Amino acid sequence: MGEELPNLFSALRAHWAASDVQSARPATSSEVVEFERSHNVRLPPDLREYFMRLNGGVLGHDGSADNDLISFWRLDQVEPLPDSGTQRGLFAFADWSIDAHVYAIQLSRDATVPTPVYIFGGGHLIPAAPTFAEFVRGYLAGNEHVLYGKD
Which CATH class, in words, describes the domain spanning 4-141? Predict the structure, then answer.
């Protein structure tokens, strides 16, 4: 991983700044540990580093939307989705257009298992990216499949 994640999250911070979105106070390691304990999950390294560097927009779910109406939530706003058929352990971490759909990542107790990101809206799950870091790369590139589920 090396410098890859810090560079990715620096690019994300710059992208938000271009939309007048200020990042929140970074989450502390104790806040991350408490989130993991209370939800019985382990954050993968990319998501852990994201929360400890940026932690969503300053308002997060309450209104820190970029120019495309996407809001990244703070750790204290991340919430589990109800079980969706065979997909369990999904946690919403961002939304588009005031919850028209949410972006959710699959978490478990094992931080080494795959953690795909999905778009959830209208009762449907659409695979968006294989990891949180890949989701951020797609977000920064304006990839319509990653952001809106378009083929």
Answer: alpha beta
- The residue whose two tokens read 């209208």 is 122
Angstrom CA distances, 34 to 11, 37, 75, 135, stand at 28, 5, 10, 25
**Sequential pLDDT tens for the chain (151 residues):** 456 999 999 999 999 999 999 999 999 999 999 999 999 999 999 999 999 999 999 999 998 899 999 999 999 999 999 765 556 799 999 999 999 999 999 999 998 899 999 999 888 899 999 999 999 999 999 999 999 999 8
The DSSP symbol for 103 reads E
DSSP 128: E
Domain boundaries, the chain: 4-141
Sequence-ordered list of residues with C-beta below 8 angstroms from that of 97, at least 6 positions apart, any chain: 69
3-class state of residue 138 by DSSP: helix
Beta-carbon count within 10 A of 121 CB: 18
